Amino acid sequence: MSPARIASTYLLTTVFFFAVDMLWLGVVAKGFYRKQLGPLLAEQVNWPAAIAFYLLFIGGILLFVVFPALEKRSLRRVAVLGALFGLVTYAAYDLTNLATLRGFPPVVAAVDMAWGTVLTGTVSAVAFLLARKPG
Predict the structure, then answer these.
(1) How many Cα neighbours within 13 Å face the side chain of 122?
(2) Are the C-beta atoms of residues 19 and 123 closer than 8 Å to each other?
(3) Which residue in 12, 116, 128 sits closest to 78, CA to CA?
(4) Is-contact 32 25, C-beta < 8 A?
(5) In whole angstroms, what separates CA 30 from the centre of its chain?
(6) What is the pLDDT along the chain (135 residues), one digit of tens a residue?
(7) I need a labelling partner for 63 at 20 to 30 A (CA). Which of 8, 39, 73, 99 fits?
(8) pTM listed for this prediction
(9) Who's near 39: CB < 8 A, 6+ residues apart?
(10) Residue spans per domain, the chain
């Protein structure tokens, strides 16, 4: 895969991931997180930290899921592996919070891990299609 294809796949995957996650966080589940986490939520998003997460996480999806799966040429395989990658990575965050933060709601951990599974599986499948697209 050419460096240009890698860069375009990374960029388009980042845009897709960010858009879908912002729809989830800012519209679909906004009230849920606010109700469950209330005083734990910052008044303003720490954008440098959020951007660092997105850039690193997309790199992980591509490096550990999408690019290795290209030789198998299986969309189903990449979606399943992406979902598992999402489950494991979101579980690392949520279960650590459950283990170390007083009052972190178990329902938030469960919903967030489910979201990470669905989101990462979907994004992995889209990235796979972008990466294998001719041209």
Answers:
(1) 13
(2) no
(3) 128
(4) no
(5) 17
(6) 889 999 999 999 999 999 999 999 989 998 999 999 988 889 899 999 999 999 999 999 999 999 999 988 889 999 999 999 999 999 999 999 999 999 899 999 999 999 999 999 999 999 999 998 775
(7) 99
(8) 0.91
(9) none
(10) 3-132
